[in-house]
Write a structure and sequence with these properties.
- By secondary structure, this protein is an all-alpha fold.
- The chain folds into two domains: about 5-45; about 70-290, MetI-like (MetI-like fold), CATH 1.10.3720.10.
- The protein has 15 helices and two strands.
- The chain has helices spanning about 15-45, 50-55, 70-75, 75-110, 115-130, 135-145, 150-155, 160-175, 175-185, 190-200, 205-220, 220-225, 235-255, 270-285, 285-290; strands at about 5, 10-15.
- Strands 1-2 form a two-stranded antiparallel ribbon.
- Strand 1 (about 5) and strand 2 form a beta hairpin.
- Helix 4 packs across helix 8 (about 160-175), helix 4 (about 75-110) packs antiparallel against helix 11 (about 205-220) and helix 13 (about 235-255) packs antiparallel against helix 14.
- It is flat, with a radius of gyration of 26 Å.
- It starts with a strand and ends in a 15-residue tail after the last helix.
Length: about 300
Amino acid sequence: MLRIQRRPGKVRLDGTDRFLRGFTYVVFSIFAILCIIPFWLIIASSFSTEAAIRRSGFTLWPADFSLYSYQLISMSPDQLIGSYIVTVAMTMLGTTVGLFFISMTGYALQRKDFPYRNGISFYIYFTSLFSAGLVPFYYLIVKVYGLKDSYWAVLLPLLMTPWLIILMKNYVKAIPHEITESGKIDGAGDFRIFWSLILPSMTPALATIGLFLALSYWNEWYYSSLFLGSQVRYRPLQYQLYNVINKVASIKNSLAASNIVLNDLPSETLKMATATLATGPIILLYPFVQRYFVAGLTVGAVKG
């Protein structure tokens, strides 16, 4: 049991409590270091030579320091910068618009006075279980919507997903209905109630789901490979890096078929460099949203 000696404006812990707190800090610090080691291993390997990787394997410090993999990726700097700009723009736009629609959908589906909420909820859940397949989906995007070689073909499919809608609905369900009723008493409309009263209480949900949306847009490459052809000059970052790896692998296979071996042509180090370039920027989002994961959803929403 935690023994606390109360003093005016101060809480003092005895020796046992300080030991337990220090032990907890040590355990979680070790766990954090163990989580950082794999990413550090990727970074260190990306600055090594291919020969050093084959000779010594992956190490925690660059062996035979080299920037060749990064130089190979940046052979077309305009393409790399353009890919970063496209990915950042799509991530910001998709996350913002997606949060707006997902939050409104989740709020509407939990309203008790919305008569069709159960049917629409079942329809959304049903689409998460069954899919028409790739061919109808491709025909819908290309032929019906005419979005071939358009960034909208990548942006729209990720905008709203059934799982995120259900997650948002469950978050909003915990918000007391008295907040909506108080807004109606004051004469506010539905959208005003949502924007001024409900949305500020959804900060933890918005941060969590926004992170999921941002990660899905940042890591997107599959839809880009389906709908973005050669007419698109700047492709999303993940797809651009994927093409770089494929080109290097194709060159190595062609040279191997001709009995030509280039030991300096990177393979593993190139993969590590692309992982570093693709993962590094998105990690910066975590410190900004981490504090919302454990925050109470309706803290201070209802005054007794």
